[in-house]
Amino acid sequence: MSSDSTKTDATTEAAASGVKRRDFLKILGGGAAVATTIGCSSDRVDKLIPYLVQPDHTVPGVSTYYATTCRECSAACGVIAETRDGRTIKLEGNPAHPLNRGALCARGQASLQGLYNPDRYRTPMVRKGNALVATTWADAIRLLSQKLGAARGQLGSAVFINQHESGSFPAFLDQWLAAYGMPAHISYDGGADDAAIAAHTATYGAAWPRFDFTAASLVISFGADFLDGWGASVPQQLDWAEARAKLTGAPRMVYVGARRTLTGLNADTWLDCKPGTEIAIANALAGTMPVAQAAQASGVDAARLQSVVNEYKGARGALVLASGQSLGAGDLLTAVTALNKANGAIGTTIKADQAITSFEGIATSAALRTVAGRMASGAVPVIFVRGANPVYSMPKSTGFA
User: Fold this and answer.
1) Where are the beta strands (DSSP E) in 144-277?
2) Is 82 left (phi over 0), alpha (psi -120 to 50) or beta?
3) How many CA atoms are closer than 13 Å to the CA of 373, on its beta-carbon side?
4) Helix (H, G, I), strand (E, B) or coil at 125
5) Least confidently predicted of 34-48, 82-96, 200-214, 246-260
6) Alpha carbon of 221 to those of 22, 149, 264, 319: distances in Å?
7) Which burial class, exposed, middle or buried, applies to 146 when counting CB atoms under 10 A from its CB (0-12, 13-18, 19+)?
């Protein structure tokens, strides 16, 4: 392209963008290579570096890394946050963390979307009529103090629902609540399988023990999507990958459920039973129900079910998992924990001494339903909700909203 052609194109672009003639001539004087910068002017000035006084140990354009904890679920994986010019730009798993060993799931990777979400509140908000409007911190704290003062004498019935988290904040929060005469907070995780946690605690002595897939020759999962969202999915993914990578003795997996989840897609056998009939298959494994009767109840082919029952009976080390988020979950969890007791899984494939302690203390769904009932009856003078969304995560029938 000739120099004259470049000038003609630049002139046309400048005219289209409304650049002042003097600014255009200054830019054009820099040569054809800078013609693409047309449109820059002193009319709009942005801050290249968002600092008035630059912090120590910060170099413009050079990343700084901080070790922290992911809060997207109760597992509390270790992460490394990459920051540049005061803004977090990337999260990765912390290779030195014993739980996730450098790995990070999709939810952890996407957590920055919440940090920079355009709908995130930037100031305190107060409801006026049917709308939330911005207010100042001073006014918000003053309003909070007024509400607490008006409810004094009733604060023993107040409720504070906090996201389930590790670290020192929960203890600090309870100290603050106690100073106002309020009860300890409720630790809530809408995505946690609290029914499974209760069953694990009662049977294995830990809310979420380590499931040692490498010690198992057969894994049977009743709707427990342990590779995607059920429990501590990241360490479970790592342990499963390690177990399946063995040249000899890699465990086989049977998935039982009406819907084929990510875990089901990785299974060697899928028993696509009717929803809520998993208990019949568990009873067939235990020998308390004839295979033919269990097959008829569940809708599974009798020959395929018999094959799985035979494989379970001949397994050197079996591990049976069950989700508490299915129909008839209580009976199913009771049956599955009994299977693990009978087949010697406790202490071999299920290790409570290597439990993931971050699942301890999560409130049950029943506790949240009780709170909703108290709220509906007018027995809760003040409620705080921090880092949780029970209106979204709890069933509509509870009436929490």
Assistant:
1) 159-163, 186-188, 210-211, 218-222, 252-256, 269-271
2) beta
3) 6
4) strand
5) 34-48
6) 73, 52, 9, 8
7) exposed
pLDDT at 51: 63
Is the Cβ–Cβ distance between 182 and 158 less than 8 Å?
A: yes
Residue 13 has phi, psi (to 5 degrees) of -65, -40
Do residues 216 and 188 lie in contact, with contact meaning Cβ atoms separated by under 8 Å? no
3-class secondary-structure state, position 233: helix
Tokens matching residue 201: 């605690």
Strand partners, 179: none
Helix (H) or strand (E) holding 143: helix 137-150
pLDDT at residue 325, rounded to an integer = 85
Full 3-state SS string of 380-396: CCCEEEECCCHHHHCCH
Tens of pLDDT, residue by residue over 233-282, are 999 999 999 999 998 999 999 999 999 999 999 999 999 999 999 999 99
Euclidean distance between CA atoms 246 and 257, whole angstroms: 27
State the Cα–Cα distance between residues 1 and 128, nearest whole angstrom: 63
Both tokens of 318, joined, read 């079996």
pTM listed for this prediction: 0.81
CA distance 215 to 387: 38
Half-sphere exposure of 230 (CA within 13 A, CB side): 23
Residue 309: CA atoms inside 13 Å, Cβ hemisphere, count? 22
Whether the predicted pLDDT of 2 surpasses 70: no
